[in-house]
Design a protein that fits this description.
This protein has about 850 residues and is of the alpha/beta class. Helices cover about 60% and strands about 10% of the residues. The protein folds into seven domains: about 1-220, Alpha Horseshoe (Serine Threonine Protein Phosphatase 5, Tetratricopeptide repeat); about 225-320, Tetratricopeptide repeat domain (Serine Threonine Protein Phosphatase 5, Tetratricopeptide repeat); about 325-380, no CATH class; about 385-465, no CATH class; about 485-535; about 540-670, Nucleotidyltransferase, domain 5 (2-Layer Sandwich); about 680-860, Rossmann fold (3-Layer(aba) Sandwich). The protein contains 36 helices and 18 strands. The strands form four sheets. It has an eleven-stranded mixed sheet with strand order 5-4-3-6-7-18-17-14-10-8-9, with helices on both faces.
């Protein structure tokens, strides 16, 4: 019977480690009932019975805390510790005390009593080391030490004690690896990822999480749902709140199953609330925070309850600030909350709450009260999260504005954006680089608002360059090979072929599609941290931009609230033009795109085509009247470099009447436009023309385009395989890619073109030693971008520009097959005759503007 009690305990522990906590509790209770039937008076069974009871009670107390709260669990463990005194064997006593102290430490950590938890884990480690010293270092003796080091390292991470945390976790990984405890090594590596995130190294954290996930899978173990939570936290630190929300939406169903743990589920709900808050979904943020707070109260963790309450207050503050009339009761509630928090343990939460109160007081006009509260907010420490540092800068800037000290406010904003730039410099992938702008959004908006109010065009130009499209400031860096990423991409490509074959044969494709989606998600995750970028370039100076423009004019659009403006640079002159409502321009751009999409098919009935053309011309005229004609005296008939903002990225500029036939280049910033000219290109001068499968005959006539060029490599259909195409593109002067394309909103580098043997990803083009100087994307809409905060446009075309291509030509909306073929024929004829890309495209579009909505991105020369 003792043997059966032991088995039930082992099965209960296994169930608990796998997240099946209700099943674990049932097994442990069965074991306890069975142990109660054994007569402990028998000398032969007394020792074994006592040890079995202790193990059962220790594990059961830890699990009881999940539902009843840590106080119940700690009380149970105190009773267990008294039982250990009756165990005769000193080494067995050490083992049991180590196990109980470890469980006690975990409960204290989960209750937010971090220092007490570390002390309990210190005691556990002392007992475990004593047990190990008395015998051979077998895995069964090493595993408890690994678990305790992992737990204590996690505690030190939460305390901000970076050195002790790294020492514990690194030793845990080494011990586990050395004794073949691969799952424990994955746990400790996962915890090291959390430490990397705590120190601000997001790519390193994501690499650790990916490595741990791979280890779990290789051991045939389920991936812990909390790994998804921690990956989401890293993405939020990089400003990728949408992606973080998607990660958490995958985790939540598993956490809400019958095996869910109250505390863990509450954590996931809280961070889902944070992601929703960051993306502006305030209703979801409030609901998730309320649910998390309720669960955390049941659990009894004061820190957890404070975090959930604080998020609810942040939501209330945003709503109040938007209303323009925040109430005093809300300010009092926020300050009362801050004053109740124990310091120093919850000093960071108290500081954040006071910063909310500062903003509320300023909006009410109570500058003195705001000043007094801000004085109680301490300077940020080395490990203070970037969003807290940005909020403090924003409070200081807004206080300076309220006092009429605009220069002081701009100095605070400049310092905040410099701090944010240091964070961006540590990011790895393109998405991480772009996402960080989210943390500086309000600072950037305030800067533009202040400078715009002064009407100083030169200063506005400088601030716009400092705040927008920072991704394109970085030197392209030739990427080293990433075998795992390459393997995942190859799997996705192979699965795509299998799906096509199954469809052809009439077989089911559900399982294949699910596997492909999972492999694509894995590739996306790897892409977040396998990228590499060079040193940041300086922000473009106005004098240098003017000198490089020559006879061209640069028009940089910007908006503040609903006001749309343009900074126009013509030679040494810099002018500011006010262009009315930003919302009206955005709506005109949206409707124009919809009309052009409807007008695209080749064989529309004549009546319908005329109706759609009339509507498109109307919207083009509206945009022209608002955006271009007011600038006529400033820009004259010069070629243009246009830096859009927000929805204006969707404007096909060659469609606007005033710009018909005028060479126009679109760049994400003046800095990016200059940077494209600085990229060293060592092309071989060759032209590569690629046709993917399934294209209409007209669009796929690359041999006709090849006739315009003296020497051109033609690659079509099955011969246009990914590996061969990549080899041909490396170092090419012109790359014309006619293939179906798909934009990937979660990660621009995984937008793709369909070639003969599967998809070609932008990530692979970015990995070329020498990307093509000039890329033409035909038969797809991959110029369309997802516009992130900070006017960061991301898509297939923009990924190519960020990775070193000088010029990219692509359509902004759908193009009919015949119209596309005719446009490309005209375009390549002009290129072959010596025209620069922007000039050749302007001439090609002018033939039939409404059916040729192409844009020239990058440099255009």
């Amino acid at each position: 019977m003792i043997r059966e009690v032991r088995r039930l305990h082992r099965d209960g522990v296994d169930a608990s480690c796998s997240g099946r906590h209700r099943e674990a509790m049932r097994l442990l209770e069965r074991g306890a009932r069975l142990a109660d039937t054994i007569d402990p008076a028998e000398p032969v069974t007394r020792g074994d019975w006592l040890v079995a009871r202790i193990r059962l009670a220790s594990t059961r107390s830890a699990l009881l805390a999940e539902g009843a709260g840590p106080a119940v669990g700690l009380a149970g463990l105190a009773d267990v510790r008294r039982l250990i005194d009756d165990v005769a064997d000193p080494l067995l006593q050490a083992e049991l005390r180590g196990s109980v102290d470890h469980n006690r430490g975990l409960l204290l950590l989960n209750a937010g009593l971090i220092e007490d938890g570390v002390a309990a884990l210190d005691s556990a480690l002392e007992h475990e080391e004593r047990r190990l010293a008395a015998g051979e270092p077998a895995p069964s003796l090493v595993e408890p030490i690994v678990k305790t080091l992992w737990s204590r390292g996690t505690a030190h991470t939460r305390l901000g004690s970076v050195g002790p945390a790294r020492q514990d976790l690194t030793r845990a990984v080494a011990l586990a690896t050395g004794h073949g405890l691969w799952a424990r090594a994955a746990d400790a590596s996962h915890a090291l990822g959390r430490l990397e995130l705590r120190t601000g190294d997001v790519p390193a954290a994501l690499r650790r999480y990916a490595s741990s996930e791979r280890s779990y899978r290789e051991q045939g173990q389920d991936v812990p749902p909390l790994l998804g939570l921690h990956r989401a936290q890293a993405l939020m630190a990089a400003g990728l709140a949408d992606e973080a929300g998607h990660q958490l939406d995958l985790v939540l169903p598993a956490m809400r199953s019958e095996h869910s743990v109250t505390r863990d589920l509450a954590d996931v709900e809280l961070y889902r609330a944070v992601a929703a808050y960051m993306t502006g979904d305030l209703d979801l943020a409030r609901a998730m925070a309320a649910s998390a707070r309720q669960r955390m109260r049941r659990w009894g963790c004061e820190t957890c309850v404070a975090n959930a309450t604080l998020l609810g207050l942040r939501v209330d503050t945003v709503v109040a600030l938007r209303s323009g009339a925040p109430s005093r009761p809300l300010s009092h509630r926020v300050l009362a909350f801050a004053d109740r928090l124990p310091v120093p343990r919850l000093a960071e939460q108290a500081a954040l709450a006071r910063m909310l109160a500062v903003r509320l007081a300023l909006r009410r006009g109570d500058v003195d009260a705001a000043d007094r509260v801000l004085d109680r907010v301490p300077r940020p420490g080395r490990l203070t999260p970037i969003d807290h540092r940005m909020l403090r800068r924003l409070c200081r800037a807004e206080l300076a504005v309220a006092r009429g000290e605009r220069a002081v406010a701009l100095a605070e904003i400049r310092a905040g954006l410099t701090d944010l730039g240091r964070v961006r410099d540590r990011m790895g992938g393109l998405e991480l680089l772009s996402g960080t702008a989210l943390h500086g959004r309000e600072l950037a908006e305030l800067a533009v608002h202040l400078v715009l109010a002064d009407g100083n065009a030169r200063r506005l130009f400088s601030w716009l360059e400092r705040t927008r499209a920072q991704t394109y400031r970085y030197e392209p860096l030739t990427r080293a090979g990433h075998p795992e990423l390459a393997e995942r991409i190859a799997e996705v490509r192979s699965l795509a072929q299998s799906i096509h074959q199954a469809q052809h044969d009439g077989h089911p494709t559900v399982a294949l599609r699910a596997r492909r989606a999972e492999r694509l998600r894995e590739a996306n995750r790897l892409g977040w941290h396998t990228g590499g970028w060079g040193a940041p370039r300086p922000v473009a100076g106005l004098d240098e931009v003017a000198a490089r423009l020559g006879e061209r004019a640069l028009v940089s659009f910007a908006s503040s609230e609903d006001s749309l403006v343009a900074v126009v640079v013509v030679g040494p002159d810099v002018r500011l033009a006010r262009l009315g409502s930003a919302g009206r321009a955005a709506e005109s751009a949206r409707v124009l795109n919809a009309d052009l999409n409807a007008l695209a098919p080749d064989h529309l009935p004549a009546t319908l085509a005329e109706v759609m053309a009339m509507s498109a011309r109307k919207q083009a005229d509206r945009l022209d009247d608002q955006l271009v004609r007011p600038l006529a005296e400033l820009i004259g008939d010069r070629d243009l470099v246009v830096v859009p903002t927000g929805a204006l990225y969707a404007v096909p500029w060659g469609v606007l009447p005033s710009l018909c036939g005028r060479p126009t280049v679109v760049a994400p910033s003046a800095t990016a436009w200059l940077a494209a000219d600085r990229v060293e290109h060592r092309t071989a001068g060759r032209t590569v023309l690629v046709r993917g499968p399934g294209l209409p005959a007209a669009v796929g006539e690359i041999d006709k385009l090849g006739a315009h060029h003296g020497v051109a490599a033609l690659m079509s259909d099955e011969r246009a395989a990914v590996a061969e195409v990549l080899s041909a593109l490396d170092g090419a002067e012109i790359a014309h890619l006619a293939a179906h394309g798909v934009h990937e909103p979660e990660n621009a580098l995984f937008s793709r073109l369909e070639l003969g043997d599967g998809p070609l990803y932008a990530h692979e083009l970015a990995g070329l030693a020498q990307p093509p100087r000039h890329v033409v994307l035909a038969a797809c809409e991959l110029a369309l971008n997802r516009i992130r905060t900070g006017d960061e446009p991301l898509g297939f075309a923009s990924a190519l520009l960020a990775c070193g291509a000088r010029t990219v030509v692509a359509p902004l909306s759908r193009v009919g097959d015949q119209a596309c073929a005719a446009t490309m024929d005209d375009y390549h004829r002009s290129l072959a005759a010596g025209a620069e890309p922007a000039v050749a495209l302007a001439d090609a579009i002018a033939v039939d503007p409404l059916r040729r909505p192409f844009v020239c991105l990058g440099r255009g020369d």
